[in-house]
Every structure is written in C-alpha cells, then in structure tokens.
C-alpha cells in the first residue's frame, strides 16, 4: 500500500507540480474570509467578488462599520450570501473582542470563529501560517475515495485522518493542493478523464467506466 500511495503522490506531482491555493488573498484574514465565502461556491466566483470586497473592507473593523444588508449586497453573487454575511460580521466581532483584532493562528482558536469549520481552519493554518494540514473539500474527498485512499462510506473527518496516516506530514499541504487540482481539472465529478488518466488502473470507478465504454464499443462493432 505504501508503494501505491507513493505512486499516487508522485503521479499527481508530475501532473500538477505548481498546484496552489487559487483563492486570491494578501493576508491570513483575507484568506479566512475567502475560504468562508467559498463554501458551495467556485473559487472563480469568490475571486470576482473579493476583488472589490477586499478594497472596501481591509480589516475586521471595516466589516462592522456597515449595516448587514449592505454587506449582503456586496457578496450577493455568492451562494448563501445572507448567512455568510452574518458569519463574517460575527467572526470580525469575535476577532476584535477576544483576539485583540488579530486573526488567531492556531487551529484550536480558528474553529471558534463563526463560520469557520475544520476545513477552513486547515486551509488557513497551512496556507497562511505554514502548519502542515490536509483540508478535505469535495474534490479531495472524491479523489481519495476513487483511488482507495479512503473508504466509500468514510466521513469527511475519517478521510482526513486516513490521508494524514498515509501521507508524510511534510507533504500534507502540497498534497492537499494537488488532490484539489487533480479533482478539479482531471478527475471531475462528472465526466472524469479516465481515458487519459495515469491512475485509472488503481481507480475502482475508473476501471468500471472504462469497462463499460469498451463494452459499448465492442457492441457497436458487432
């Protein structure tokens, strides 16, 4: 199994050597806001919204100087924008009241913030503070299960735990990005590129897809 995991990691490294966080930000606080907004939304849409948002709001105080409905309008292109606007203002209030206006750097403190779950905290500590972590989003979960790095019925937390056990700690963050790129641009939820995938032989779903496709081709030829 170790050889297979190494093969997976090396293959993804070859495919996506420059995988990185695609959410635009210039500091840990902006990254936290961007990740919060990205729930059930594409990074592309978030980046379009934050381009103006981060010019208008530069710190926690700024987000609390406007009425909630104004912030809602600023992010209305984002899914669930009303709830996210509430989370942002509550998050900013807590940062000011409990953390002296500075975004906390520990995972333990980050998850205390409104709207910040385990995945968001993992993204922030790894990308903003250099702490090794694996954040499991829909892409990471899908790829991990398809390649047998996790079980089909595993929860998100279980997937994270299994990945952490199998992947060297010093590779957690970069592997997180490569898993996302692999899932976002290659092993998509719909129409994954199984025909040209170098890992199809160890992908249960991929082998089934190819078997069905080859069977259909043979039927047509007859």
What does this structure look like?
This protein is an all-alpha fold and 222 residues long. It has helices at 2-15, 28-37, 43-56, 60-63, 68-74, 81-98, 107-110, 118-128, 138-146, 156-166, 172-185, 204-221. The protein has twelve helices and no strands. Helix 1 (2-15) crosses helix 11 and helix 9 crosses helix 11.
List the helices and strands and how they pair.
Blueprint: H1 2-15, H2 28-37, H3 43-56, H4 60-63, H5 68-74, H6 81-98, H7 107-110, H8 118-128, H9 138-146, H10 156-166, H11 172-185, H12 204-221
Helix pairs in contact: 1-11, 2-8, 5-6, 9-11
Short description:
This protein is mainly alpha-helical and 222 residues long. It has helices spanning 2-15, 28-37, 43-56, 60-63, 68-74, 81-98, 107-110, 118-128, 138-146, 156-166, 172-185, 204-221. 34% of the residues are buried.
Overview features:
single chain; 222 residues; 60% helix
Distance N terminus to C terminus? 40 Å
**Shape label:** elongated
**Largest sheet: number of strands, sense, barrel closure:** none
Number of helices: 12
Query: Class by helix and strand content?
Result: mainly alpha
Which H/E pattern describes the elements?
HHHHHHHHHHHH
**Mean pLDDT across every amino acid position:** 94
The number of strands is 0
- Please give the radius of gyration in angstroms: 20 Å
**Helix residue percentage:** 55-70%
User: What is the multimeric organization of the chains shown?
Assistant: single chain
Point out poorly predicted stretches: none
Strand content: under 5%
